[in-house]
Structures are given as structure tokens and as C-alpha cells.
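can u do me a favor
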């Protein structure tokens, strides 16, 4: 009986993590879509209030307002096709995921890492680090 109960708990945990991973991947997709159609309210809804972003130029955007403002400005100045191909989703704890992916804008090839947290409103981006690959 203990073995069956342990198996049931493990199965439930794996199903929950699978659902969480799908939600995290969907959030990254919504972020890319929001960048393609710059809408401050849509972008703002994807981030935590204390979100920050370090872009590949070295600029820090601290706080959701600065992230949204910078996101819209860079989306308007860099008009190439933008994609993030998620390579890994790692759960650091329940409600906290680290996402790594290939980030491309036109011919620019970068790497991005996103810290994504779950709160009472759902999954939100807490931090983004965009990096140019070492040569």
C-alpha cells in the first residue's frame, strides 16, 4: 500500500511539473509575441513588479516600468524577426523556474536566461539576462 501511495504522489508531482513547464514555455511565447506587437499593457502583464533585465549592450533595466519602456524602445529599433527557442526549463523550487534559450533577432544570435516566478496571478518574468555568445 505504501508503494502505491508513493507512486501516486510521484505521478501527481510529475504531472504538476509538466503542466508548470507548459505554462512557463507559454509565458516565453507570449513575451516574444508581445515584443512583435509592442503594447505596454500586454508586456507589463508578463512581468513581476520588481522585474529587471540586463540586455546584451550592458544596459540594466530595473523595475517593471523600465523593463516595459526599454522593451518597447528596442522592439521599435530592432525590427528583425525575434525568436526564443527554449532549450531548458529547470525548476529551482516550486513556483520558481530558470529558463535558458537561444535568442535571435534577425541575424543577431544571442542567449537568454529568464527567471520566472509564480505568484497569485500566475507565472511572471522576474528577470532576464541577454548575452552575446563568447567567440
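np, heres the sequence
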Amino acid at each position: 500500500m505504501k508503494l502505491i501511495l508513493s507512486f501516486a504522489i510521484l505521478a501527481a508531482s510529475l504531472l504538476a511539473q509538466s503542466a508548470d513547464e507548459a505554462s512557463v514555455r507559454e509565458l516565453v511565447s507570449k513575451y516574444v509575441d508581445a515584443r512583435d506587437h509592442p503594447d505596454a499593457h500586454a508586456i507589463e502583464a508578463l512581468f513581476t513588479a520588481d522585474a529587471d533585465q540586463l540586455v546584451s549592450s550592458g544596459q540594466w533595466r530595473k523595475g517593471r516600468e523600465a523593463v516595459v519602456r526599454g522593451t518597447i524602445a528596442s522592439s521599435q529599433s530592432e525590427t528583425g524577426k525575434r525568436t526564443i527557442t527554449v532549450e531548458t526549463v529547470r525548476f529551482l523550487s516550486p513556483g520558481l523556474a530558470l529558463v535558458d534559450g537561444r535568442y535571435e533577432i534577425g541575424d543577431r544570435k544571442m542567449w537568454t536566461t529568464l527567471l520566472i516566478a509564480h505568484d497569485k496571478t500566475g507565472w511572471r518574468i522576474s528577470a532576464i539576462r541577454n548575452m552575446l555568445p563568447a567567440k
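The first strand starts at residue 47 and ends at 54. hope that helps!!
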